Amino acid sequence: MTGAVPGAARRGRDRKADVLVPVPGRARFPEGDEPSVAVVGGGIAGLAAATLLAERGARVTLYEKNGSLGGRLSGYSTRLADGSQATMTRGFHAFFRQYYNLRGLLRRTDPSLARLIPLSDYPLRHSGGLTDSFARVPRTPPFSALGFVALSPTFGWRDLAAMDARAALPLLDVRVPEVYERFDEITATEFLRTVRFPEAANHLAFEVFTRSFFADPRELSAAELLLMFHIYFLGSAEGLLFDVPSEPFPQALWEPLGDYLQRLGVSVRTGAPVHDVLARRDDAGADVRTDTGTDHHDAVVLALDTEGLRHIVSASPGLGTPAWRDGIAGLRTAPPFLVSRLWLDRPVHADRPPFLGTSGFAGLDNISILERYEGEAARWAARNRGSVVELHAYAADDAAEPEKAQRMLVDQLHQVYPETRDARVVDARHEWRSDCPLFLVGTHRLRPTVRTPYPWLTLAGDVIRCDLPVALMERAATTGFLAANALLADWGVKGQTLWTVPRTGRSPVLRALAAVAGRRPTD
Q1: What mean pLDDT value characterizes the chain?
Q2: Which residue, 392, 348, 431, is CA-closest to 93?
Q3: Orientation angle between helical segments 472-490 and 44-55, nearest 10 degrees
Q4: At what angle do helices 255-263 and 44-55 cross, to 10 degrees?
Q5: What angle do CA 252, 253, 258 make, to 5 degrees?
Q6: Residues 296, 494, 490, 41: what is their CA dihedral angle, to the nearest 10 degrees?
Q7: What is the mean pLDDT of residues 400-408?
Q8: Which listed site, 149, 165, 283, 477, has its alpha carbon 20 to 30 Å from 305?
Q9: DSSP H/E element including 105
Q10: What's the predicted TM-score (pTM) here?
């Protein structure tokens, strides 16, 4: 069930945000009748599912193969060359204001979200010297688009007039899930070419939206690109500005949430990989096998990344239908990405932004100056009169030589911030990963959904199809809550109310124009 958000209950500032009300039911399980639920995966999706189920009184066991919670946003302690301890993570993540459900999860331990701090801008610098900014752009569409055009040095009124207006109208009325029916069969690159998106401004589409999926736009579904435009720019009044944690992810987010789960009675088992899941007869739950033995549960939530889900399903013969298994086997991961963190013996210039998106710099996608927002980095920088700089390269070449790619990123840093040429690298850490989902053209209909062939088994994660306007971390949190909601509904227990950005375009006039354009034959 969806509808406009009452003003007094708005989760963010967007008056047109949608609310999804769960089916009615009991407030929680009665004492003595609590089901046992296994949640496999301790990332955002698994934490969301485990939190809601435990709050409703279920007996939850959370299995995480790694030694800490957080999934792709986890971290580990490392000793630097100067003897100090630091927390290494997978790199910068933006907590946008329209991440209603993720932020709702974090409010369990931080009601005012005091551990998230706002960044004042989202600058994007092109190698040609031009820089776009979102700091002064209005948040509410269509004024956000008009304001951006008025202020942008790379996308002006002439560029707007040169676009194919009819081909671009679908951007103004993205409907979920219909957007996949219309645009999942073409690539992001093809769509931008069709609308005559100006070449000089391509970095706005690729760096801000497409490469956020760690994907080559020549392979990414155009439907995902349109969805991103809708969520972050043309469909939401929350704007493109965001918050970041004030300390490393483990300390700011996951350790408090893990403590909260344990207070709810959740058995949190880190360092406990699940090998397979065996369905019991008559849909009476499943046996979950780990290194320490086999546990029986009344229900299971698989909240895993792409490879983890593929592995468990493959290792669980007979689980699900052949078509369902084939769909999961066909999931793919995005190309590898690199996160390089450098501890420098001198500060970068004071006017450098905390976060900078980059384009045209030989693979460098963004630069973060951690001491500008993260407490641990700020304390190190103050003690050493230095800087902690993080570099990202998304969708790296599979054949790239790691050390050469790492040196290239540093060379590009020197080009963007010349003062770093003279800095000595006190220490460095480099993280190569390849575990983000890849949304190839034409694959949306093949992706697994939260519901599965079994009433006792649900799926969650950012690879899972949920047909709502959510992406990235918010898709993980939303599917985690949806997975728990589905189980709770079957047990007659009320789930959690969820929020999303509007599921259609905001303006009735623009929606009407887009509808007319959609009925015309393609030229």
Answers
A1: 89
A2: 392
A3: 30
A4: 30
A5: 125
A6: -40
A7: 92
A8: 283
A9: helix 100-106
A10: 0.93
